[in-house]
Every structure is written in structure tokens, then in C-alpha cells.
Amino acid sequence: MSAVAVQADQVIALYDAQELVKSQSQAQREAAAKHALARVIVRVSGSQQALDAEPVKKALARAQDYVYEYSYANSDETLPGIDGEPVPASLIKLKFSSALIEQLLRDSALTFWPANRPLVLIWVVNNDSGRVQLVSDADAWQSLRQAAELRGLPISSPLFDLEDHLAMPAESLWQLDEAQIREASERYRTDAILVIRYSTLSDGQLRGDWTLLHSEGDASFDGVADKADSLLENAVNDVADRFAGLYAINPSESGAANIALWVDNVDSFAAYKRVENYLTSLALVRRVQMHSVNEQGLVLKLFTEGDVIRLENTLALDDTLQPVSDSVSLSDNRYQVRGSMQRPLRYRLAGEGAR
Known about the structure:
This protein is α+β, with helices and mostly antiparallel strands. It is built from 10 helices and 14 strands. The strands form 3 sheets. Strands 4, 5, 6, 7, 8 and 9 form a 6-stranded mixed sheet that branches. It has a 5-stranded mixed sheet with strand order 11-12-10-14-13, with helices on one face. Strands 1-3-2 form a 3-stranded antiparallel sheet. Strand 7 and strand 8 form a beta hairpin.
């Protein structure tokens, strides 16, 4: 089976948004900024309930204070005018201040979901009057991409080429053959797999279920909707909520979490700097402090805005640091807390700079 270099279908810019406007007036710009800021807050916090927080409600009333750059572009869309007749619409592109929004999350005691997010491969299958088929039409995927963009969830679609059709028959997907789904998806090398299945009920509604396959545990959801795009949006929202629960941090915390990390194959200053630069780039990590170093590697003390599980989940999103088995069954420290100096998390540095 050939491997495919996969990237997200769209680049997720957490703090950018765009809206259609009837004109370039201040009133239209203010309305667009308010709507766009609401979307950005949901995307960055990872929570659809974030808009209920009182500090957020106040911020939305002065949304333009959070904008540091905006521009206009032409569009082929129209909006209803005063008399109901369609008028040409312009596109306003807004960039919001990440520092101001993150401070707003702190003030609101809301979570912050960093930009390093899992890439999800999505398979969609439909059972229409006993005819099971893969869903590959442009309208369905446009709905998925729009929903994913709103939540800041990187997604990827299959190629729907001959290899996909041979490796992933629609019937096996409908039967939720997990072994075959995992094997057919291996070529895409994504962080997670989402399988969405739906069919039409006798009253015309759509009933579906969606299963997320992920290293941190699989999850299943279901729902009913009037239209396919609503059902697909529900699936994306459930997955985004699930990942926000795994990866979002609480920026209102004091950063007192103290986690020991042992990297056991750092044998040069360049390798040490690579480890340090990588860890300090993580939104979860507030500060990195050297504790000790010897010929076996080094021990670092991390001051983080999350616990050991949050840190492990974040490190698992790429291969810079690879976990080493924590073999403590015969060790005196097996009853010590994981991530303590007595029992540090063990990792090794991948690629160049490691032994």
C-alpha cells in the first residue's frame, strides 16, 4: 500500500475570519467584527459555550477593539438589500489580536486550545434504500470543510482513487469493519480517523452515527438532522469537543504544575537546544529549566499550564520527542507519581541531533 503525504484540506488560521458585507461602512464593519470575533472565540477556546461568559459578551459589544488588521476583497456573492432585492457583497477579512483574545480567555476562566491540533481523516458513507455508497460529492465536503474551519479542526479527505475503492469498500465502511478501516487509512498517516454513516428515515429526516478512532481512545456519537450538511456539522462539532477536552489548557492556571522530563539521548549542545526550543514553543509549557545532565541524557523541569496527561497528549501530536517505555515494575520508584523527579516522564529525541 502506497503512503500519501497528507496535509489538512485547509489551513486553520485560528485568529483570522472573513465575513460578507453589503458595504464598507463602519456599521457593516462593526457587525462583521462582532460575528467574526464570536467564531474566533469558539475556535480558540474549543468550546461552543464560551459565548455565554459575561466577559465574552462584553468583548463582543466592542469587537473592533480586538481587530488589528482588516481588508476588503471582491466576491461573487450577494446579500439582501433594504428592499429585499439582492445587492453585490464584498468580503471583509479580519485578523484578531491573539494576545488580547488569550487574555480574554484568562479573564473569562475559559480554556485555550493551541494551534497544534490533530489531523483527522474523514470517511463518509450513505445507505440510501439499501444502496450503500461512499460520499465524495463536492457539496458534502464543502459542508465538512466549513464546519471544520469554524471549529479550527484540521481535516483531510480520502483521494477516492482506485486504491481507496479496493481497500475501503462502502459495505465494509457501513459495517464499521475497524481493522479494514485502519488498514485502508494507513496510507494517509493522519492522527485520527472519523467514520460518518447516515441513512434517510421514513419521515425524510437523516439519522447518522459517527465513530472517532484515535490513540487516546475511540468515541462514538449519533444524531438526527433535517439535512445532510447539518448532520455533518454535528459530527465535526462532536469531534472538536472531544479533542478540545483532550488538548485544551486552562490559561487561568498559575502555571505551578511541575513536571520532570528525562530525554535520554541528548549528547550535544545542538541537541539540547533543539529540545529546549521545541518545548518552549508549546503553548502548554510556560518555562523549561535544566535540572541535571549526564552521559545518559538530561532531566528537565517543565512548568506547565496542564497536567501530565495534557503534556503527553501534546507531545504525541508530532515525533520530535518519542516516548520510552516506563519500565518500573521492579524499581523502587514504581509507587512514585509519574512526572515527578523520582519518576520523570521518559522520552528520546528523534532525528538529527540524537545519537
